[in-house]
Amino acid sequence: MYERFYGLKGKPFKLTPDTRFYFNSKGHSRALDYLRYGIQQGEGFVVVTGGVGTGKTTLAQTLFNELRRYRNVVTAHLVMSQFEGDDLLELITDAFGLNPADRSQATLVAALEEFLRQQFRAKKRVILLLDEVQNLPFSGLEALRMLSNFQENQRPLIQSLLLGQAEFRDALQRPSMEQVRQRVVASCHLEPFSEQETRDYIEHRLSQAGWKGDPAIEPEVFHSIQDYTQGVPRRINTFCDRLLLFAFLEGVHQIQEQTVDSVAEEIAEDLPGSPGQAQSGRDEGRGGDDRVSRLEERVRFLEEALRQTRDGLDRAFADNPETGGEG
């Protein structure tokens, strides 16, 4: 509705994941490096966790777009629900295009093992990405662990990338998860954006949609948006979409702090208990640096080493037949 009014090519703040709008924040860059590093290792599990709406799915799709460049990589992407181990095996079998007539666990396992060995003989890597793994019961994780035991020439035949919410990170610490935890070769947790990253993220998405400075946005607006959304990307998308719609309906070409306050009040009325309502406290004034947490990056070690893996996938896949390269 507001796109034509502001000369935009499309909606900049869609809720559905879209890799065209991927924003390479410090945390997301580090997470991608962890994923690339884990893939280079060619074994075990790589785990990325984060709160609701922190961009895990967009991150996964960005990685898969990279992997599709390689003809010697076979991938499957599944979004998890409350599946038991047998159900998960059936889903994985279907995701790789297998369709055994007998759907018993033994037949599914045998079909998957034969498929994986065929891919290995064809010098292809098999990578499975599971999203929302916090929904997997223990039997599902045990099924994944069982698949990770398939080897040939001391090389694992499948590698799993696990994306889940913060509770999955906590679940991995349980004593019953010891054998799964031992197979984790890399892990990373996504934090919300800092205030500067929130501003950069908003301007990045607007620019990707063809923004030329209309509407103009006053600097204080970004502080207010950070206050209301706490730097969570999905919240930012929801809030900024409403903000642009409100500005369009008011016919304004400059977004001010009071515009943000008006939208926050609307959201609070429409959705009682929403993050904006809970965090705003505007009637108490801004005195508020103690109210607005300034999330800092907590994990800095290995960043430089992991960053060097950006080009490592090309070497791993192109130069090393053992990891599925064609050379």
Q: What is the topology?
A:
Layout lengths: L25 H16 L3 E6 L5 H12 L5 E7 L5 H11 L9 H17 L3 E7 L6 H11 L2 E2 L2 E2 L2 E6 L1 H6 L6 H4 L2 E7 L4 H14 L7 E2 L1 H11 L3 H18 L3 E2 L1 H14 L4 H6 L22 H5 L4 H8 L8
Parallel strand pairs: 1-6, 1-7, 2-3, 3-6, 8-9
Antiparallel strand pairs: 4-5
Helix pairs in contact: 3-4, 3-5, 8-9, 9-10, 9-11, 10-11
Overall description:
The strands form 3 sheets. This protein has a 5-stranded parallel beta sheet with strand order 2-3-6-1-7, with helices on both faces. With 327 residues, it is α/β, with parallel strands linked by helices. The chain is elongated. Mean pLDDT is 82; it is low at 276-307 and 323-327. It has helices at residues 26-41, 56-67, 85-95, 105-121, 138-148, 166-171, 178-181, 195-208, 219-229, 233-250, 257-270, 275-280, 303-307, 312-319; strands spanning 45-50, 73-79, 125-131, 151-152, 155-156, 159-164, 184-190, 216-217, 254-255. It has 14 helices and 9 strands.
Features:
two-stranded antiparallel sheet; disordered C terminus; 327 residues; 14 helices; elongated
Give a short summary of the structure.
The protein has 327 residues and is α/β, with parallel strands linked by helices. The protein has helices at 26-41, 56-67, 85-95, 105-121, 138-148, 166-171, 178-181, 195-208, 219-229, 233-250, 257-270, 275-280, 303-307, 312-319, and strands at 45-50, 73-79, 125-131, 151-152, 155-156, 159-164, 184-190, 216-217, 254-255. Helix content is 47%, strand content 13%.
